[in-house]
Amino acid sequence: MRLIDADKWCMHLADLQLSNTPDERDSEDMQKEMKSNYEFIGFLIKLIEKQPTAYDMDKVTDILDDYLFEKYCVEGDSKIYEIVKEGGIDG
């Protein structure tokens, strides 16, 4: 399993949705098809937005911050946020 950025995915879908907006210059069949695509993409966006968050970066950094403070009296180590944001991948 891999995590994706659902917000970016929804933005890409919204862009696609805008490109499927019917125009009065389009044929009637094309307008129907584009309207159907537009509605389906809207459905997909809502479906993605309803999904639970699998990984909350802010929550993870808060937990790590609390743990490091309790265990080692280290507070506000900015490296924690960098590591969590990068997903542990050296880069």
Structural write-up:
By secondary structure, the protein is mainly α. It folds into two domains: 6-50; 57-86, no CATH class. The chain contains four helices and no strands. α1 (6-19) runs antiparallel to α2 and α3 (57-72) packs antiparallel against α4 (78-86). The chain is rod-shaped and about 70 Å long. The two termini are 21 Å apart.
**Main sheet summary:** none
Spans of at least 5 consecutive residues whose pLDDT stays below 50 are: none
N-to-C SSE series? HHHH
| SS summary, helix count | 4
Total number of distinct structural domains: 2
Structural class: mainly alpha
**Strand percentage:** under 5%
Mean of the pLDDT scores?
Answer: 83
Question: In percent, how helical is the residue content?
Answer: 55-70%
The total strand number stands at 0
Which outline best applies? rod-shaped
What is the CA-CA span between the terminal residues?
A: 21 Å
Radius of gyration: 21 Å
Brief write-up:
With 91 residues, the protein is mainly alpha-helical.
What structural keywords apply?
68% helix; mainly alpha; 4 helices; 91 residues; 2 domains
Give the arrangement of secondary structure elements:
Blueprint: H1 6-19, H2 28-50, H3 57-72, H4 78-86
